[in-house]
Amino acid sequence: MATTTSPIKLESNRGARFSNTAHAKFHQTQYDLISKADLPKINVSPDMLKEWKDAIEVEVEITRQAQASVITKEMLVKDRERDEALNNLFGIIRAQRYSHVEPVRKAAEKLSVELKPYFGIQKEINEDETELIRGMEKDATRLVPEIAVLGLTDVMQHLHTVNEEYERLIVTRRNDGDALNLPDTRVARQTSERIFEAICQCIQASYLLSTVDADRKMITTLVTGINHISSDFRDTHAQSQAQKAAAKKRKEGDDSGKKPGDGKKPDDGKKPSDPKKPDDPKKPDDKKPGDPQKPGGDTPKPGREEDPGEDQV
C-alpha cells in the first residue's frame, strides 16, 4: 500500500561546488547507475536520459577545450596572481588588528569587520571569484581612508588589474567556445543539475505511488546507490580541499623560513603570574631601602598577557 510520506531521501544536488571535471564525472557516474534501472518503474523516460546525457557531454567537451586552450594557461597565471593579492590583503588586515599604533589598529579592525564576508573567496570557483572581487571593490569604496592607513591602496589597485585581466581572458575563451557552439560553463552545469533534480523527483514520486513491494525495494536500492555516489564524491572533494590547504600552509612556512615556534622569546623558566614561594613570604614593607627595584616590578601589565588565540603572521 502506498504511503503519504517517504522513508527514502535523495541527496541529489551535491555537485555545485565541484571542479568542472569532477562535476561532469559526478553526473556521468549517476547517469551510469540510473540508466541501468527499470525506467518505467521509476517514471523516467528515455528522452529525459538522452537530454541528461547530452548535457553531460557538453560539460566534458567544455572541459576538454579549456584544458587544451593556451588562454587557459594564461588564466591560471592570472588566477594565481589575484589569489596572492587576496592573501596579502587579508593577511595584512588580520595582522594589523594587533598593531600598537592606534589609528592603524582601528583601521584594521574596521576593515576586518566590513570585508569579513569576502575572506576565503580564493577558494571559490574562478568565475564566482571574479564577481566576488568586484563586489568587494564596491564595498571598499566607502573604506578608502582605512585602506590608505594600512597602505593597501596599491594592493587593491593590483587586485583590480589582475581581476579584470582574468575576466578579459574569460571573454576571449568564451568567444572561442562560441565558434564550437558551446555554452558558458555555468549554464552547462546548471542544465545537468536541473535534469538530475527532475529525475530524482521522479524516482521519489515512484516510490510513493508504487503499491508493489518488489518495486519499492528496487527503488530503495537505487536511492541507496545514488546517495552512496554523492557521498563518495563529496568526501573526495573535501579531502582534496584539505590537502590543498595543508600544502599551502607548508609552502607558506617554507617561504617564511620559520618554524611555527620561531620568533618567541626564550623561556626563562618563569611564568608571568607565578606566585612567590610560600616558604619565602615577603610583605611589601619587608624590602630594604637599598634593594634595587625592577622597572615596572615583576607583575605583568594588565591586558598584555599573550593571547593564545591571536593570529600568527
Automatic annotation (TrEMBL):
Residues 234-313 are annotated as: Disordered. InterPro entries: DUF6261. Residues 251-291 have a biased composition (Basic and acidic residues). Pfam families: DUF6261. This is Uncharacterized protein.
